[in-house]
Specification:
Function: Ligand for members of the frizzled family of seven transmembrane receptors.
Family: Belongs to the Wnt family.
Number of domains: 2
Subcellular location: Secreted, Extracellular space, Extracellular matrix
Structural class: alpha+beta
Signal peptide: 1-24
Bound molecules: 2-acetamido-2-deoxy-beta-D-glucopyranose
Helix content: 25-40%
Organism: Salmo trutta
Mean pLDDT: 86
Largest sheet: 3 strands, mixed
Length: 359
């Protein structure tokens, strides 16, 4: 009768509009798939079609259309961030694996964990870094070198070259990467904080790079400019921040616009986190066994280090399950001889290595 059709209508409406909404907003940005998707593998050689990037909110779509020339750098930035994540976590149980899918990390980033904090921070730093670099290389018309932070020249050097404009790169990262983080919930607050922590660490690590000019390398004239560090420096720095990340608790406040969630330090006896620190409020799974729900792949068959007592050591990485050992033959250059003048010749030797993998 009435009730059944009515209920079905409500259910359908719910599915399509209301209840679906909470699921339609995943806690990680789907547009990160720009960095891994096959369809974007020829970045730079083909124009980016903003409408075909998955998961953009309206503000991001507008940004993409207005500044389409810097979108390849945005995508490149996410890629740099993910590569650095994989380097920093290579010997850990969760090693920043991506799957070739829209949900590039799987469900791992659904929870508000340290791992989520790190990925957000390194990706937003990556975007700021790549945009800043490409601007300094002159590859876009709307940006270029930084002329605002020169100050007086120092002793024995003068300003020269192209100072990298990290403020512009950070602005792009803030406008684009944070565009979807305006919800009044705790996860949005966490993502905003960690995204900004990534950009702040980039800003903190800018340095004066100098070059000598003059006859045969004599340093008669020295010119200097602001430069971003190697991205590895940012990765190492953020990894320290991951190790010392601050655990938070969620608080609800009633404000004029409704309920708003904010984060507060869980432990009052620790210093509250600064804008450079990473924050999280849910504990991580242990990543020992495969679990499709948490996105853990488990550590079976992972290569472990027999002599290390750290997390990459066989005890910890294999979660106490033990390990298998196989020998592997590798060809290497050996007995190299320097011939006058000027080349080196080598022989090829086969060396045998023990390779340990988790049971
Ligand atoms: C990362 O972990 C996955 C899943 O366990 C594994 O397949 C992959 O080889 C690992 N990558 C590295 C670099 O160890
Ligand atoms: C294994 O761990 C030891 C001790 O931490 C380290 O010196 C060594 O370089 C590691 N080996 C590899 C292959 O990573």
């Amino acid at each position: 009768m009435f009730s059944e059709t009515f209920l079905r209508m409500i259910y359908l409406g719910c599915l399509l509009f209301l209840c679906g909404l909470t699921h339609a907003i995943p806690s990680y940005p789907i547009w990160w798939s720009l960095a891994v998707g096959h369809q974007y593998s020829s970045l730079g050689s083909q124009p980016i079609l903003c409408g075909s990037i998955p998961g953009l909110v309206p503000k991001q779509l507008r940004f993409c259309r207005n500044y389409v020339e810097i979108m390849p750098s945005v995508a490149e930035g996410v890629k740099i961030g993910i590569q650095e994540c994989q380097h920093q976590f290579r010997g850990r149980r969760w090693n920043c694996t991506t799957i070739n899918d829209k949900a590039i990390f799987g469900p791992v980033l659904d929870k508000a964990t340290r791992e989520s904090a790190f990925v957000h921070a390194i990706a937003s730093a990556g975007v700021a870094f790549a945009v800043t670099r490409s601007c300094a290389e002159g590859s876009a018309t709307i940006c270029g070198c930084d002329t605002r932070h020169k100050g007086p020249p120092g002793e024995g050097w003068k300003w020269g070259g192209c100072s990298e404009d990290v403020e512009f790169g950070s602005m792009v990262s803030r406008e684009f990467a944070d565009a979807r983080e305006n919800r009044p919930d705790a996860r949005s607050a966490m993502n905003r904080h960690n995204n900004e922590a990534g950009r702040t660490s980039l800003n903190d690590n800018m340095f004066l790079k100098c070059k000598c000019h003059g006859l045969s390398g004599s340093c008669e004239v020295k010119t200097c400019w602001w430069s971003q560090p190697d991205f590895r420096v940012i990765g190492d720095y953020m990894k320290d921040k991951y190790d010392s990340a601050s655990e938070m608790v969620v608080e609800k406040h009633k404000e004029s616009r409704g309920w708003v969630e904010t984060l507060r330090s869980k432990y009052n006896f620790f210093k509250p986190p600064t804008e450079r620190d990473l924050v999280y409020y849910e504990s991580s799974p242990n990543f020992c066994e495969p679990n499709p729900e948490t996105g853990s792949f488990g550590t079976r068959d992972r290569t472990c280090n027999l002599t290390s007592h750290g997390i990459d050591g066989c005890d910890l990485l294999c979660c106490g399950r033990g390990h298998n050992t196989q020998t592997e033959k590798r060809k290497e250059k050996c007995h190299c001889i320097f011939h006058w003048c000027c080349y080196v010749s080598c022989q090829e030797c086969v060396r045998v290595y023990d390779v340990h993998t988790c049971k």
